[in-house]
Amino acid sequence: MLFGLTNGPAVFMDLMNRVFRPYLDQFVVVFIDDILIYSRDETEHVEHLRLVLQILRDNQLYAKFSKCEFWLKEVSFLGHVILASGIRVDPSKISAILDWKPPQNVSMVRSFLGLAGYYRRFVKAFSMIASPMTKLLQKDVNFVWSERCQKSFDQLKTLLTEAPVLVQPESGKEFVIFSDASLNGLGCVLMQEGKVVVYASRQLKQHERNYSTHDLELAAIVFALKIWRHYLFGAVSRKLLFALRSMNAIITMTEDGAIIPGLKIDTEGCLRFKNRICVPKNPELIRMICDEAHSSKLLIHPGSTKMYNDLKQFYWWHGMKHDISDYVSKCLICQQVKAKHQVPSGLLQPIMIPDVTPPNPAHEP
């Protein structure tokens, strides 16, 4: 790779992804120049290792032997220690957090939360614990390091040193989600066979603080289903969906068991998203809808904003606002008639200028 290439890491990462694309997430994980090979047993690992080394040779890529490690029972990778029993935080990274002194300004608070937040999946109710410090990051808030901030700071450091080992989820086994909600935030935990897979939490948005207890509990469930949908694909039972529907949640399931929030099929067989008809990405169909909403006999060529606000009450499709704006910008009548395209008009009637010669004072008697 040439020296001085500004996007060198991105280019090299793209190369590695293309080289190992058939085997990514099967037994290889690649991050720039770090290659992690994992297997279930030693026999399988020999085959995986031979295959990876052969791919590197075929593409004229070389690994320095002194920097390679083989046949490890545990390995440090991207700030985590990966074991056969699960994943835990890297002690070397945690030592940096433990040595962190109380922040003296907003920038130091942001740096601490950035490092500690990288391990938030290991900490139960991370967002709620860190809320006194995150409030200092808000706009127009004076920096005052209070006792609540110090308590939050110390508690996070303690919890990170006592972080549990998270197990790796296995497909085909049952998942269990525990969720909770309060006026401080939403929290949930994903478990499998009684062991923790991952924690998740977030603070409440401003409008959510007006929710009832019933709605807050439902928001916690929906939050868990959304962020862990890659784990729960095909694993959510219809019994859970019926329970959510009884709580007025608009959630449906495909035949494969996929969760689709906000989608439902009406009595006429139309797919709707939040009570709006879903339009397929068909250019001809979208043009017909735009023609009817822009140049029909009952309309007067509305602008893109007005047209979008009218159509979004009944229809939805991906890239809707952009398509409408592009349609209006290409309308020939709008280009010819709109005021901003016209030459500024002059006066309706010209003012007659009298042709009168002023008297010369020198000829007056």
Low-confidence blocks of residues: 253-259
Residues in helix, %? 25-40%
CATH structural fold name of the largest domain: Endonuclease III, domain 1
Strand content: 15-25%
The radius of gyration computed from the alpha-carbon positions, rounded to a whole number of angstroms, is 32 Å
Identify the strand order in the major beta sheet: 11-12-13-14
Outline type: extended
CATH architecture of the largest domain: Orthogonal Bundle
| Tally of structural domains | 4
Question: What is the first-to-last residue Cα distance?
Answer: 100 Å
What is the mean pLDDT?
Answer: 82
Number of helices: 13
Class by alpha and beta content: alpha+beta
Work out the number of β strands.
Answer: 14
Order of helices and strands: HEEHEEEHHHHEEEHHHEEEEEHHEHH
Query: How would you describe the oligomerization state of the chains in this entry?
Result: single chain
Biggest sheet statistics: 4 strands, mixed
What is the CATH C-level name of the largest domain?
Answer: Mainly Alpha
Question: Could you explain how this protein is built, in words?
Answer:
- The protein is an alpha+beta fold.
- The chain has four domains: 7-71, Reverse transcriptase/Diguanylate cyclase domain (Alpha-Beta Plaits), CATH 3.30.70.270; 89-162, 2-Layer Sandwich (Alpha-Beta Plaits), CATH 3.30.70.270; 175-239, Roll (Ubiquitin-like (UB roll)), CATH 3.10.20.370; 263-337, Endonuclease III, domain 1 (Orthogonal Bundle), CATH 1.10.340.
- The chain is 38% helix and 16% strand.
- The chain has 13 helices and 14 strands.
- The strands form five sheets. The protein has a four-stranded mixed beta sheet, with no helix packed on it.
- The longest helix has 17 residues, at 42-58.
- It starts with 7 loop residues before the first helix and ends in a 28-residue tail after the last helix.
- The model is unreliable at 253-259 (pLDDT under 50).
- This is DNA/RNA polymerases superfamily protein.
- Pfam families: Integrase_H2C2 (PF17921), RT_RNaseH_2 (PF17919), RVT_1 (PF00078).
